[in-house]
Design brief:
alpha+beta, 465 residues, five-stranded mixed beta sheet
Length: 465
């Protein structure tokens, strides 16, 4: 009886399993519009749901329950909730997942992996995300990370390197990019170290390039630049240079241009003579005070460039400044002892060469009655030219107020110059008061060539009453 009973029980179980399989197959065929048992999409269970129902469940999960957990160094952790940033996620490809299950025979059970990852169309409030990330304690309370750098000049220590310091400072731009990538993928977690979000040290105290730069800055701080003009000199000392120096972004010594330019301006005030009042001892024995464009003048822009280059070279140097205009002498009178003197009071012109009078002649200067006075001052000859036609102002009909051909033309003050005047029968005396020139210095034709041969560019021309 036990044996029979056992055989009967076995038969019943076999038939039960057969009937269950037939029933399950029939059920599967009748429910191909829903996911099979055990189906999970992005970790969310959707078994027995249609794709539309699964989409609704996933949307609800991401809008209400989604959060991004951010972990960092030393166990730091923060959470960005989906509700804080208006997070919405719409899954894609749910129909395809169901079709794949159906095509595979709708297999289910413990031995079947019915887990899937669906792409998401994500939206969120970017401004809210940025504000949330910036307010996270692991961002707001981070310990700063700093590169090694060269400290400002110290009179006792010179330039020294301050070592780097590694903290927990986060690169907010990188954090934002990593967080956005995680949000778009629907990832639940973000590891800051793995994502490279911590600020990296770019320059360390042991870097050879930083050590070389520090040494170069110390050399610059121990040098001197002397600007010399004749017997006068102005020296820029290293301790002043040191205050102008910083480490340039290109790894070179950077010089504060504004401070270098200010020093050049002070130096130029010591050396410039152009435009300043100077005493001139006339051929007649009197001393007169004159100004004028002739003289030394530092080209401050070019000199600042040259000074910076000299400092960056790191070696003491004595040099002459860069001039925008030059004169005959740095010492004594800048016009030296070779010059043309136009004595308008006595209507006479002299040429002194190396202090000796080598040429003179009477002249006619600007007509006083018509206010064509020849201006007083110290000038430099622009150039000299033969066979020139001097012209007055152009009239409306195209003609000129006057046209005067001359054989020798020597301008020194705008359109004013020395020249021969063969239309005159006399020179000197008081002719200039009523019948003078338009401002030029008229010379006897027989005497002009000799003076022309003596003169050269920038020779001083000194006019006085």
């Amino acid at each position: 009886m036990k044996s029979f009973a056992a055989k009967g029980l076995t038969a019943v179980l076999v038939w039960a399993f057969l009937l269950w399989g037939i029933s399950a197959a029939a059920y599967a065929e009748e429910n191909t519009e829903t996911y099979v048992s055990g189906t999970k999409i992005n970790g969310v269970g959707v078994a027995g749901l249609t794709p539309e129902e699964a989409a609704a469940r996933l949307k609800e999960f991401y809008s209400g329950g989604y959060a991004l957990t951010i972990t960092g160094k030393d166990g730091a952790e923060a959470v960005v909730s989906g509700t804080d940033i208006g997070y919405q996620a719409v899954p894609e490809g749910l129909e395809e997942i169901l079709a794949a299950e159906n095509a595979a025979g709708r297999m289910a059970g413990p031995s079947v992996d019915n887990s899937y990852e669906a792409a998401l169309t994500v939206s969120y409030d970017s401004q809210a995300l940025a504000a949330r990330l910036a307010s996270l304690p692991l961002v707001a309370e981070a310990v700063p990370t700093s590169d090694a750098y060269i400290a400002p000049w110290d009179e006792e220590k010179g330039f020294v390197i301050v070592p780097e310091s590694e903290g927990t400072e986060i690169d907010l731009e990188k954090l934002t990019a990593a967080a956005e990538a995680a949000l778009k993928a629907g990832e639940p977690a973000l590891d800051l170290e793995s994502a490279g979000c911590y600020r990296e040290i770019l320059t360390r105290a042991a870097d050879e390039s930083l050590i070389r730069l520090k040494d170069a800055m110390n050399r610059c701080a121990s040098m001197e630049v002397t600007c010399q003009a004749g017997s006068r000199a102005v020296t820029l000392e290293g301790k002043e240079i040191a205050g102008w120096l910083t480490a340039g972004a290109d790894g070179a010594v950077a010089v504060d241009r504004s401070r270098a330019a200010a020093w050049v301006a002070e130096m130029a005030a010591e050396f410039d003579t152009a435009g300043t009042a100077r005493t001139f001892h006339t051929a007649g024995g009197a001393d007169v005070t004159l100004t004028g464009p002739y003289g030394w003048k530092v080209d401050q822009e070019a000199e600042t460039d040259a000074l910076i280059a000299a400092i960056q070279a790191g070696e003491s140097v004595t040099r002459e400044p860069v001039w925008s205009s030059a004169a005959a002498s740095h010492d004594g009178n800048d016009y030296g002892n070779t010059y043309v003197e136009v004595d308008m009071g006595n209507q006479h012109v002299y040429f002194f060469q190396d202090g000796q009078l080598v040429w003179d002649a009477p002249c006619v200067t600007g007509n006083l009655s018509k206010h064509y006075d020849t201006p007083e001052g110290i000038y430099g000859l622009y150039y000299k030219q033969q066979d020139k036609v001097l012209r007055g102002a152009k009239r409306a009909d195209g003609t000129y107020e006057y046209e005067s051909p001359v054989k020798y033309w020597m301008p020194f003050n705008g359109g004013i110059g020395l020249h021969d005047a063969d239309w005159r029968s006399g020179f000197g005396g008081t002719i200039y008061k009523t019948n003078g020139s338009h401002g030029c210095v008229n010379l006897p034709p027989s005497k002009t060539k000799e003076l022309y041969d003596y003169l050269y560019k920038n020779v001083p021309v000194i006019c006085h009453s």
